[in-house]
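Narrative summary of target 7.
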Amino acid sequence: MRGEPREIALGFALGIFIGMSPTMGFQMPIAVFFAAIFRYNKVSAAMGVWITNPLSAPFLYGITYLIGAKLIGIREIIPISGEFDITTLKILLSKAPEIVWALIVGGIVTGIPLAVISYYLCYSAVQRYQDDIKRRLAKQKEKFDRKREEKRLKKEEKKMEGG
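Modeled conformation, tokenized:
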């Protein structure tokens, strides 16, 4: 991935933050849009939103809901049993604004520390990766220069012997 470690890490952190919001299905366009506005890396922002994916979403949204519900004072947590019927659907729909608000608050509260942590982890990883590439390129250049110098010396040696 091209870019400065700071831009890449900021994009990834932004993606993580957006990924904690209850906007599944729209997270990637939202993250790329804001990454473009703030001039962060758009690819890393798109990657960051994948913190919520089909496997992690139930767990993450469950946690963000519980945290948000606690913070906004929802006393009655909506129980969802193994059976999902029309009654459960009616309850969920009647409580939708409350649920969404809890998810937003919980997403912000969990998203900020996760974004900060992911920024530093990503920055460090990208910096190490880019430094490693620079070292490898320097080694290859050194090897190439050494071979070129050896060829030049052999050529000069042949000239001296022959002429």
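DSSP finds six helices and no strands in the chain.
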